[in-house]
Amino acid sequence: MKLKKYLYQVVIDKKRGSIAFVIRLFLLLLSYVYFIFIKMLVFFYTGGLIPRVAFDKKIISIGNITAGGTGKTPFELFMVNTFLAQKKVTIISRGYNDDELDLLQYNLPQVKILSGKNRIQLIKKAQNFYNPDIIILDDGFQQWRIKKDIEIVLIDSSNPFSNGRLLPAGLLREPLSSLKRADVFVLTKVDECPENLSSIKKVIKKINHKALMLECYHKASGLYEPIAKKNINLELLQNEKVFTFCAIGSAESFKRTLKKLNVNIAGYIDFLDHHQYTNNNINTIVNAAAASEAKIIITTEKDWMRLDTNMIYKLSGKHKFYLLKIAIELIDKKEIINEKLSKLLNY
Length: 347
Known about the structure:
By secondary structure, this protein is α/β, with parallel strands linked by helices. It is built from 11 helices and 12 strands. Strand 2, helix 4 (98-107) and strand 3 (112-115) form a beta-alpha-beta unit. The longest helix is centred in the N-terminal third of the chain and has 29 residues, at 18-46.
């Protein structure tokens, strides 16, 4: 785990020195190999050399061009609850991040969620057994084999294109030229870095000027106390000393959201995205929270999905333990996206 964290810090240019330099050069070489591989795949599938698989049901793809941290899960919740509430929806996922799927299922009990490696077989299963009106293809931008009706790409405004390099030397999963496939761009967390917006839009419009561009921000929508199983008023946090921990793609964004609530963050521990917590981790968190003199420990709903019952009780032993609920707030254009969905999906 320490090696993985070190490599990640090398990739995001937070590690310096001769060793980091050599590793960065090696990763850059691998990145060029990956570039050739990806370009060939995209060319074969989108160029018509290999036919894409079409389906009877309407398919909305929600994905990104970078690895992690764009806010895909809260946006999917927003999409279903805001625009597709009257529709029968099935979500198809690769399933390698169980915490995200668990969170989606917890908040969308009416939605069928299927996960597995073969997305095409899962879509066929959804059509045959559940007969949905709409299928959401989770993390679907790189699913070139599947013909989609709407391609939505999320871009984190606080770190839109990483360092501009492809994996593993950067966080880009495809060259930026692939953005021309998108029908809708969603710039997330725009309130965290308004100074970046004009340059981000300029890059996107140069590649794809026809796509609809939306802006949104993440906001705290509530607190939940898992032991008592009840919602707590957010005002309870004002001026309180809290200790936070998380293992998500954008830990800094989580802390910025808390600070907007006038919270005094006395300390924090950040783990790598999708980290599987151990009892030792929980002991470390509880001890660090006590040392910081914080009365409250807070994490995200997604992290909650990776905590067992004993861990939750341990976190709640000498502290109040809360989950911060995060929601998406779209900045205008709700009518436009609703109209586009209606037009493209013919309903």
